[in-house]
Design brief:
By secondary structure, the chain is of the alpha/beta class. It has three domains: 44 residues, no CATH class; 122 residues, Rossmann fold, CATH 3.40.50.2300; 156 residues, Response regulator (Rossmann fold, 3-Layer(aba) Sandwich), CATH 3.40.50. Helix content is 42%, strand content 14%. Pfam families: LacI (PF00356), Peripla_BP_1 (PF00532). InterPro entries: HTH_LacI, Lambda_DNA-bd_dom_sf, Peripla_BP/Lac1_sug-bd_dom, Peripla_BP_I.
């Protein structure tokens, strides 16, 4: 059986000392271009691979970063993770990815597990950055970290969208189309501080533009009966003509439920989402939404963690008002004339009121 190639073998083949080989492979300390070439040629010829275990013992680092997000089913998180992973990989770090499924207890457990694995840093999206026990565990140990999508509390770093300003933009879009009564639909705020901030901004925007305070529908994280919930919501708010939904996946599910109920989008009900996922441009009607750049946000959060580890200046973040844009779509239009006069907006015949077992729609939990 062939013996594994050692760093001493590389040093002998390159005609230099072990310290010189280590310096070249670790990228630490000065070395000439000629020496680096000799070492790399020897590594390639011998098939030498650095032992991560040995390197970790020598440097007291694991070259791993914990990445914590609620879900990968939503393309927004998948794109953000890809951006972070590519940045870490280019710097010689591996990413350990875990999903919390929007569960606060799971969030604490997975973060503690990553802490036990002695990761060198964290990029994380938590349920509520102001109260997350998992985040507090990271803070108390002073592990380099950066939040992703969460608004940053005091003394924290985060790469996120200006949720409040984005929600104001949505309120203006509804106003420009002539809507007078609208609603907001999201996962329960305890599971997503992003949804809560968007609602707060939307309430402020509606007040600013002369729209009645939006009706609120919060959905439990295990709710699948969106159609039934939407029907009850619209019956409680019969003059409602539009809904701002806290993410695009949930917005697309809302459009589907509206159709099950016999409603036309946007003729009977306008829908606006949040995130700008590509599939929103491929459906009919196309989804009006707030567009973000999750891959850029993930990469920025990763660069911030690396800057803390290396003691460098953190990367500059985009201006808040440039962190998003509004994309017009076919799901937003002026309300029908009879609805603007305050008449009942939607009636549901028995044929449009399917049994609960047929009305269940699997939801992607709100970001």
């Amino acid at each position: 059986m062939r013996q594994p190639v050692t760093i001493k073998d590389v040093a002998q083949a390159a005609g230099c000392g072990v310290a010189s080989v280590s310096r070249v492979l670790n990228g630490t300390g000065p070395s000439s271009a000629e020496l680096r070439k000799r070492v790399r040629d020897a590594v390639d010829e011998l098939g030498f691979e650095f032992s991560e275990i040995g390197r970790s013992l020598q440097s007291s680092t694991t070259r791993t970063i914990g990445c914590v997000v609620p879900s990968l089913a939503n393309p927004v998180f998948a794109d953000a993770v890809q951006g972070a992973q590519e940045t870490f990989q280019a710097a010689g770090y591996q990413t350990l990815l875990v999903c919390t499924n929007y569960d606060t207890e799971s969030e604490v457990q997975v973060i503690r597990t990553l802490l036990a694995k002695q990761v060198d840093g964290f990029v994380l999206t938590v349920s509520d950055a102001a109260s997350s026990d998992g985040l507090k565990s990271v803070q108390v140990r002073e592990i380099p970290h950066c939040l992703l999508f969460n608004a940053a509390p005091e003394n924290e770093r985060s790469w996120s969208v200006d949720d409040r300003a984005a929600a104001l933009t949505v309120a203006q879009a509804f106003k420009d189309e002539g809507h007078k009564q609208v609603g907001f639909l999201a996962l329960k705020f305890k599971s997503s501080d992003r949804a809560r901030l968007r609602y707060q901004g939307f309430v402020e925007g509606c007040a600013q533009y002369g729209i009645k305070e939006p009706a609120l529908l919060e959905i439990d994280d295990d709710s699948e009966n969106l159609t039934t919930l939407l029907q009850a919501f619209l019956e409680r708010n019969p003059t409602l003509t539009g809904i701002f939904v806290s993410n695009d996946f949930l917005a697309l599910a809302t459009i589907r439920s509206a159709r099950v109920l016999g409603l036309n989008v946007p003729a009977d009900l306008s829908i606006v989402g949040f995130d700008g996922i590509e599939v929103g441009t491929m459906v009919e009607p196309s989804l009006a939404t707030i567009v973000t750049d999750p891959k850029m946000l993930g990469s920025g959060a990763a660069e911030t963690v690396l800057s803390i580890i290396n003691g460098n200046r953190p990367p500059k973040q985009p201006e808040p008002d440039l962190s998003f844009s509004f994309r017009a779509g076919g799901s937003l239009a002026p309300p029908a004339a009879e609805r603007t006069d305050g008449e009942k907006g939607a009636t549901f015949s028995p044929s449009n009121n399917p049994p609960k077992k047929n009305a269940k729609i699997q939801l992607e939990r709100s970001k």
